[in-house]
Amino acid sequence: QVQLVESGGGLVQAGGSLRLSCAASQRTFRSYAMAWFRQAPGKEREFVAAINCGGIKYYANSVKGRFTISRDNAKNTVYLQMNSLKPEETAVYYCAARPTLVSTSNSAYDYWGQGTQVIVSS
């Protein structure tokens, strides 16, 4: 069983930055694709960013150039650096993991964290 624990959420003004972290329990972390999704109230969960085992990164068009996903295999941790945040990006941000291959579909991921709330004030 893989456990994921997110941290780093909070309240930030529009245009500000936050860095989310997701610590994973699995010893084979380096063989998992990791992703971030978000879900705003009343909306479906949506893909934000992902990183594969080799470090190749994928982003939703809406966050390209502002968000950066990274991973530290020695620490079993994946990060999401979020810059120039917008009020409409207020959501619960979730970390997810699946073996090997990246997917932008939330149904493809086997393991999820509990989520961390991000609130962007205008």
Notes on the structure:
This protein is an all-beta fold. The chain is 0% helix and 50% strand. The protein has no helices and 11 strands. The strands form 2 sheets. Strands 2, 4, 5, 6, 9, 10 and 11 form a 7-stranded mixed sheet that branches. A hairpin with a 4-residue loop joins β7 and β8.
Write a brief caption for the model:
This protein is mostly beta strands and 122 residues long. It has strands at 4-7, 10-13, 18-24, 32-39, 46-51, 57-59, 67-72, 77-82, 91-99, 111-112, 116-121.
Note the overall shape: globular
Question: Level of helix content?
Answer: under 10%
Radius of gyration: 13 Å
Structural class: mainly beta
Number of strand elements? 11
Average of per-residue pLDDT values: 96
Largest sheet: 7 strands, mixed
Low-confidence segments: none
Cα-to-Cα separation, first versus last residue? 40 Å
Strand content: over 45%
- SSE ordering: EEEEEEEEEEE
Total of helices: 0
Topology:
Blueprint: E1 4-7, E2 10-13, E3 18-24, E4 32-39, E5 46-51, E6 57-59, E7 67-72, E8 77-82, E9 91-99, E10 111-112, E11 116-121
Parallel strand pairs: 2-11
Antiparallel strand pairs: 1-3, 3-8, 4-5, 4-9, 5-6, 7-8, 9-10, 9-11
